[in-house]
Amino acid sequence: MSLEHRAFVYDGTDHFLAVTERFLRSGLEAGQAVVAVAQEPNLSALRDLFGDGAEIEWVDAAGFYLHPVRTLRDYQALVNKFAPRTVCALAEPVWRGWDERQTLEWIRYESLINEVFKNSGARALCPYDREALPPRILEEARRTHPMVVTDGPTLPTGTYVDPVTFGAACDRGLRFVRPSDAEYFPVEHDDLHALRSFVAERALLHGLAKRPAQNLVTAVNEVAANALQHGLPPVGMWIWRDGPELLCEIGDNGLWRPAPTPLTGFIPPDSALQRGFGLWTVRLLVDLMELRAGWDGTFVRLHIR
Q: Which keywords annotate this record (predicted)?
């Protein structure tokens, strides 16, 4: 069963409620597991409309949309939780509070939904507030959703881009600028104890709490081990602070070619033996992971607050 993934561009609360109520009721009537993830005040308005007896799982989007890869994982957990019933999900993304790089990852996330859940039989309606959101976000919604609902019937967006092509374009647009005062640590052999100690010391020096510091050490170790195994020497790591963030960048001289697709490391793996498990784990550990591969080598940049 294929995924139904639609964007819903709405104008005001009345328009939001009219379309989302029909959508959620259609899920209930079809016997689907119905989940409503929405922002306030939309969430409370919907709950008042349906009342306490409705068999709907209500979720505040503000606490659900915190990290793109974790949100993908959590939606996958919902789909697995209700199987073999299919899921009918109202899924209102959160677009406030992100910088440009984080915004790009959330846009990529919307595209990835089409791949992660393509055979789930799920139905997803993603509301976009035309009055509150910048034009760019509304334009990207049409590139990441095959169908769109506005004032009339559901129609093809006409500008939809498949996830593989979309993800590759996101990566090509990355630009890495490293400050001249970034500290450098050469990674010259498989014993990474010294590297882990170096990162741990710098993380604590820069004020990271214990758990984020441990996550960063684990992530750096995984990326460095991968570079040693699959890349070309020299392998090295740079670390520096940028405002509230601590950044680590691991680079080697090889040209990383994702296999089987550019989606590797984004798609939740079936097991620890599946290719991409390490990169997926790294993405879960840090606030943002970026990968750039080109003529000058392969570089993985980790952001953590």
A: Kinase, Transferase
Q: For residue 137, what pLDDT band results from cuts at 50, 70 and 90?
A: very high
The domain that holds 31 is classified in CATH as 3.40.50.300
Q: What are phi and psi of 180, to 5 degrees?
A: -70, -20
CA angle 132/134/135 to nearest 5° reads 125
* Strands 297-304, 245-252: pairing kind: antiparallel
Q: Nearest 5°: phi and psi at 228?
A: -65, -35
The residues pairing with 124 across neighbouring beta strands, listed in sequence order, are 5, 89
First to last CA, the chain: 40
Residue 82 sits in which domain range?
A: 4-172
Residues 276/226, Cβ–Cβ less than 8 Å: no
> CB burial class (10 A; 0-12, 13-18, 19+) of residue 133?
middle
CA distance 213 to 236: 19
pLDDT in tens, 102-134: 999 999 999 999 999 999 999 999 999 999 999
Residues 89 and 230 in one domain: no
Helical segments of 65-126, H only: 68-82, 100-116
Could you report the per-residue pLDDT of 76-87, keeping only the tens digit for each? 999 999 999 999
